[in-house]
Amino acid sequence: MTRYRESVRSLLKERILDAAYERVTAEGWDRLKMTHIATTAGVSRQTVYTEYGSKAAIGQALVMREVERFLTGIQDQLLAHPRDMRAAITAAIEYTLCTAADNPLLKAVLTSGGGGDDDLLTHLTTRSEPLLETAINMLTAHVAEAWPEIEAHSRGLAVEAVVRLTVSHLVQPVLPPELTAERIAEVTMRVAQT
Predict the structure, then answer these.
(1) How many CB atoms lie within 10 A of CB 133?
(2) What is the DSSP letter of 114?
(3) I want to staple 90 with a disulfide (CB 3.0 to 4.6 A). Which of 38, 49, 121, 185 is the partner?
(4) Does this model's pTM top 0.90?
(5) How far apart are CA 123 and CA 93, in angstroms?
């Protein structure tokens, strides 16, 4: 019975996140109200508060769900280049930047409000620890398995550099994705080889 309840609660949480995603991508984060999420999800406002507690918690959950989706695609890119670290990193970064450019939630994040505590952008900048930790852990595990010859300290520095630089270019792109990917891969390779 406990497993059934957990399954139902998980589905409910996903339904609420789906509703929040729909509202945010259509109207923006600033205009989002818990009542709007509840109406779109077909649940009470209290249910939304019970499951998430606050608008900020929903924002964090939305961002983390997108991160997990991105990481799946990134892992596919890394696996497509098992013998060539530079090609794997370049492909993964380019995938991330190109996919992000067309992602409705990321567009909503980057165009949301003025940087207050409730702003979605804070989940990519000042409150980005869960996002960075998740990405760094996944990449560290992959690189350790795929290229065990890289010394652990250099591997850690390289992974952190690639994640932080890629997030920086997501928030503030400067060059076309393919050029950015090549430049970040160059930096990463230099760090990994030290």
Answers:
(1) 11
(2) S
(3) 185
(4) no
(5) 20
